[in-house]
Amino acid sequence: MIDVLGIGFGPSNLSLAIQLKELAFFNDKKVRFFEKKKSFSWQPGLLLPNTNLQIHFLKDLVTLINPKSPFTFINYLKEQGRLSDFINLNVSYPSRMEFNDYLFWAANKFEDIVSYNSYITDIEPKYDVNQVSHFKVTYVHDNIPNEIETRHLVIASGRSPKIPSAFFQIYDGINVIHSDQFTKSEVHKIASENNLKDHKIAIIGAGQSAAEIFLYLLESKNPNLKVVNFIRQFGYSPADSSSFRNKVFDPDFVDVFYNLPSEAKNNILESLLNTNYSVVDPDLISKIFTKLYHMQHFDRSNNGAIVSLSEIKNVIRNSENKIEIEYSSKINSKVEKQEFDYIVLATGFEQAFLYKKYFNKFKDIIHYGNDSNLEVNRDYSIKFKKCSEAKLFLQGYSEMNHGIADTLLSVMANRAFTIATSLIGGNKN
Questions:
Q1: What's the Cα-to-Cα distance from 128 to each of 133, 387, 390, 407, rounded to whole Å?
Q2: Lower CB count within 10 Å: N or C terminus of the chain?
Q3: In angstroms, rounded to a whole number, what is the distance separating the alpha carbons of residues 74 and 218?
Q4: Nearest to 248 by CA among 375, 399, 428
């Protein structure tokens, strides 16, 4: 029996490991993390050059809780011998490459408590009389099935790629991929090579990832690469990252949001969509417009295009293994077709798998709200119908309860601290 088992070892559970270590939890408790990847990585499919983090570097793994921690981003820079150079960059938003390196640096310090190449196949609540006493977890490590029992669980295994229904039948991870696979894909390889073969690629989506991939492909070394970005609205919508708007990502706002009635929560979430969903940094929008301007008016090239106000009606794979996209215009309802070699779905993520994968044996003991979402306590533990000595915490799955920042890095350190203090016994629901 161990005390805490963490499922997933990305930034969220890495932050938790740091908090538990600094609160001396490891001194007399047994903690373990399982991670399905073979080594630590953070969004490896989206680590493109010249892309930046979208939050301030001080919202790292621990600074907002303990600025003196040796695990801060600033201490990482100091240890790498580039603190002065970073200061001279005069940026608040470091590159994703650098932040990924920071996370990797921190994760390496916890290798003794992480089992990589491990994935969960089942979680079962166990009872003592009529209350939940602990959990039995079935997992596979290095292709060998095994079981472990734990007093508490923390799930932070990320979300799954969202595949629009029109692409279900032809999705293969080769010619049709999700954006989270991009840097590992054939599309990325083609764009990185200086060859003369014609390729036509469609990007579906209008968010930050879609725009970053679109610009990357526009700047490809392959002069015969044609790229089309299908967007449902009229061009990209700029992300609202103004100072007052950004206060919704402050840790203090979680308390405010959590205590609101459901209707108020829904209204606030809807009003804040333009801070996070299907929006693009204004600077990136400007870069893309400038690139297309020069392609059209100076290079005389039609290799890049945005199809705005488009609604995809049908997608098929033809006899030549090309993908045909049939789409209509929202302006005049005119239906057109284009043929592509590759499709990149920059269509976001969903958490439906959370219910299917982990909670098959919890159906009778979990509280669900009127919107069918899990009810979650303020300390991020799931509300059980039965009394429970054991707690099951969620990291990154509680936007409806804790606010729009819950899926982002902004509140990561504070959320981990809340969970850590709850595990120690100093936090109420």
A1: 6, 10, 11, 34
A2: N
A3: 34
A4: 399
pTM: 0.93
pLDDT in tens, 176-221: 999 999 999 999 988 887 766 789 999 999 999 999 999 999 998 7
Cα–Cα distance, 71 to 80 (Å, whole number): 13
Which residues share a beta bridge with 95? 52
Q: Which domains does the chain have, with CATH numbers?
A: 2-159+351-424 (3.50.50.60), 162-238+277-345 (3.50.50.60)
Structure tokens at 146: 């095994």
- Locate tokens 């990291």: which residue? 395
Backbone angles phi, psi at 154, to 5 degrees: -130, 115
DSSP-assigned states of every residue in 52-87: B-SS-TTSSSSTTT-TT-TTSHHHHHHHHT-HHHHH
- Measured CA distances, 202 to 67, 195, 213 (Å): 44, 19, 11
The letter for the amino acid at 32 is R
Count the alpha carbons within 13 Å of 392 in the hemisphere toward its beta carbon.
Answer: 28
